[in-house]
Amino acid sequence: MFDTLLFFYLVVPLVHLIHEAGHVCMAKLHKVENTEIGIGIGPKIFDFYFKGTRIQLNIIPFLGGYSSNDQAGKLSHKEIALISFGGPLFTLLSIVFFLPFWTPFQFSFSALFVYFSLWIGIVNLIPFKIGEKRSDGWQIASSLIQLVKNR
Q1: CA geometry: angle at 139 spanning 133 and 144, to 5°?
Q2: Contact, 123 vs 115, CB < 8 A?
Q3: What letter would DSSP give residue 14?
């Protein structure tokens, strides 16, 4: 029971935070202002600002995350592709930092983190669209297609 709570209330939100921070870091590299990260869904529990980015934790923190900025429609296709790639990149790179603590044959925090990060990093690179929701892979692929078309 404790392992399940640890996974849903610590590991999952942490992986989502790292993933969304990757998007925000790439956006900041491209001089994007007014960035925001949301972890979870439902009513807001609390929010705070960190280095100009608003970070909000919602009541159900294990059901996804998002990042946004006020530059919608103003970014080039290259910038959109790079910002979209930032999330999966940070997620997959975070695994490298946890590898020294990883115990693959035991149930542990580090194993949960590595496996879930691997899942999130890879799945987000797959281009798919469900309704209005688009994966990072979709954003990357569609931006690259537009770059090729515009040449």
Answers
A1: 155
A2: no
A3: H
